[in-house]
């Protein structure tokens, strides 16, 4: 069991490094990560989680990230008086990394 936790922590660190320290959501089966902060994660589930609860938590995290990044910019534009214009710029969506053999 300890080996799986260590392996999970290593994989999370590598993912975070390979992706340039961008936000990475890691879904793992098996044991929970014993120390999420050592793995470079802001948060992690420390026990098995039902699929519905997992989906709700991921949506909540994504919504909070969206609000933190996007909504302050929209409020700033409104305060400058640029009404009537919409931000039709492209939305950056990064693809998931391909599964690698370890």
UniProtKB/TrEMBL annotation:
Composition bias type Basic and acidic residues, residue spans: 72-89
UniProt region (Disordered), positions on chain: 72-102
Top-level taxon: Eukaryota
Coiled coil regions, renumbered to chain: none
Membrane-spanning segments: none
UniProt GO BP: phosphorelay signal transduction system
Domain named Response regulatory: residues: 1-62
Record-linked InterPro entries: Sig_transdc_resp-reg_receiver
Protein name as it appears in the record: Response regulatory domain-containing protein
Annotated source species: Chromera velia CCMP2878
